[in-house]
Amino acid sequence: VLVETPLLVGGLFLVILIGKFSIATVAALCMRFPFRVALLAGAGLAQVGEFSFVLGKAGEAVGLMTAEESRVFLAASVMTMLITPILVRFAPHFAAGMAQLNPLERVFGGHGADEVEPEHPQLRNHVIIAGFGLAGRALAHSLKQVDIPYIVLELNPASVDRYRGEGEPIYYGDITSAEVLHHCNYLEAREVVLVISDPAATRRAVSAVRALAPELLITVRTRYFDEVAELQKLGATDVVVEEFENAVEMMARVLRRAGTPRNVIAARIAEARESKVELMRPLTLPRQRLMHFAEVMEQVKLDSYLMSGEDWAAGRSCHDINLRSVTGASVVALRRGEKIVPNPSPREKLQAGDVVYLLGDQPAVTGAMMFFQSGQAPQAEAQDSADGHDSSEDAPNA
């Protein structure tokens, strides 16, 4: 058919390709996608779908198309299918160079990365987060808590609208675009973090960022361990594998609930990581429940004492009063105002208003409270008589 009627088939091919491309692009712009994403959508939807063949046959059956017209339509349709993979392959490069058409984006109300707020281009030593799912939101929250600046790129328009309304520095943008990275001031960034769900998009993103910024740190989340080698070859600095981290987390939790000592769990995790050296990270374990220490807790008491200005120990340190040697109890923490001081130095002076946390057996803790008050070493008889009673009976300030 193409040989017999090349102009007709070629003309129909161009009409279909350009027409569908334009309709899909404008539709995406009306949905407030950035211009780059709209172009990619147009390229991906420019071909004729297989269902059109069904419609064509139905039209031919009722006389809307002749047999010859159906043959020409089929030939043009097949040509669109052949050209679409090429369009999809080169569309990202073509779209990346169309920044001059971004004003068209604003006509339709889209929000691209070129609309970064005035203060963001001046960002220095910031983190660029690509993807704002659960992991991206958790990372952003943590960065905000420690005052590390960040900017987020996301291709889900609903997420962008929602979180931008909540004050997040989030924008429509493709991390593989040089223009987008430029607007994010990538040359001054400390790190790029990729938490994208699409493995293929993740690989493209790593390649694009590494090509533009050879020294920039790139942290990548991936699902399977088999993908690590390729991501590192493409330029990823650090790869976090969900598959492996889930296995480690499950192992740690099961062993912890079984009452396995922490150092044994650490050894098992270290053993598991030795064969995956590239995935090494600090050990993290869930807190062990008190019920696992039930036997120990029967013999050891943790209690608190509110230091007053009238107490003999106020203004003195545990080293000065030799607390451990005299009473057998240890100070494991202090609460000073809103601040908790774990494992305070023995030379830390106790102040009025401090809540002192004491650890030891019952007689030792009770004796320490009495010692704080009077400065007199507890007598063995007094300690024995206090055994089995709550320390608050002997120490009103407890």
Quick structural summary:
With 398 residues, the protein is an alpha/beta fold. The protein is built from 18 helices and 10 strands.
Spatial shape: elongated
Average pLDDT: 79
State the end-to-end distance.
Answer: 97 Å
Number of strand segments: 10
Strand order of the largest sheet: 3-2-1-4-5-6
The number of helical elements comes to: 18
SSE string: HHHHHEHEHEHEHEHEHHHEHHEEEHHH
Taking Cα atoms only, what radius of gyration do you get, to the nearest Å? 34 Å
State the major sheet.
6 strands, parallel
β content, as a range? 5-15%
Q: Segments where pLDDT lies below 50 for 5+ residues?
A: 113-119, 277-283, 381-398
Q: Helix share of residues? A: 40-55%
| Category from helices, strands and their pairing | alpha/beta
Structure description:
Helices cover 49% and strands 12% of the residues. By secondary structure, the protein is an alpha/beta fold. The protein has a six-stranded parallel sheet with strand order 3-2-1-4-5-6, with helices on both faces. β1 (127-130), α6 (134-145) and β2 (150-154) form a beta-alpha-beta unit. α1 packs antiparallel against α2 (35-44) and α2 packs antiparallel against α4 (67-96). The longest helix is centred in the N-terminal third of the chain and has 30 residues, at 67-96. Mean pLDDT is 79; it is low at 113-119, 277-283 and 381-398.
